[in-house]
Amino acid sequence: MSTPAIELRDLSRHFRVRSGLFGAPRHVVAVDGVSFAVPAGGVLGVVGESGCGKSTLARVILGLLPPTSGEVLVDGQRLAAMDRRARARLIQPVFQDPFSSLNPRRRVRDIVALPLVAQGGFAQSEIRSRVDEVLGRVGLDPAMGERLPAQLSGGQRQRVAIARALVLRPRIVVCDEPTSALDVSVQAQILNLLAELRRDLGLTYLFISHNLAVVEHVATEVAVMYLGRIVERRPTEALFAAPEHPYTRALLASVLTPEPGLGIPDVGLGDAMPDPANIPPGCRFHPRCPAAIARCRSEAPLPRRGRDIEVECHLAAVG
Fold first, then answer.
1. Global pTM?
2. Domains of the chain from N-terminus onward
3. Distances (CA, A) of 116 to 81, 124, 138, 149
């Protein structure tokens, strides 16, 4: 079996936060024992409600936050054992908002070149050549390198952010809601660009989004997060066709449709949002689960694995 492009082993990230100046500190579990592996060239879509731990997971993988426990491996190498420059050569981010992720006072050319300058050892001629090459690859005229971000459209700014991520020729790209700040028509262009780059450059993506339609379009596999845990993971087509976990079914049922008269769907989850500082005993989804039984309230489900599926639910039909 080939080595995964990226692998997480029991990765956790906890925080201690205070409510106000004199409030007692609370223990917040943002990511809790997450494990998965993504093969080279794959796209793992990570979905879930706001606050489920998706973005914290991305920041731990990128090294922006240290893990509380567990480890991240790229091509079998522990990222924690690498310095920042070595990590940056392997894994790069594309963030949500191109309006805030680019320095407004620097030219596009300098923004894209920054990772090369930070690495050191590149001649100016090579830096210029690489910047021109990657700008062309993301669909921008190299002459745009002389512009400021304010002189570009939102889609062009996100192309600049993608170019900056690719200029070091990484193996992994972590996309954290890369299209949610863009118009719908521009979203499609960026998604098609990411698919083309993956095919041409052999990239592996970790694609974090709350937009299920986008994830269905780009991902080869989907991981569903709830209160810091992966509660279901399986190939995209199978998950959307026959979800096993009640939370996954609720997420899919929540997707709005353009059909007139249907209104807002009622998925039966109630109005209370999950609290990572107050995780319930047993199955952490049971207070909102319409199918919960007594066992769910007292016993946390272990991951149940079958062919191309992993699900944490006592009621899942997994052989």
1. 0.91
2. 6-311 (3.40.50.300)
3. 22, 10, 17, 19
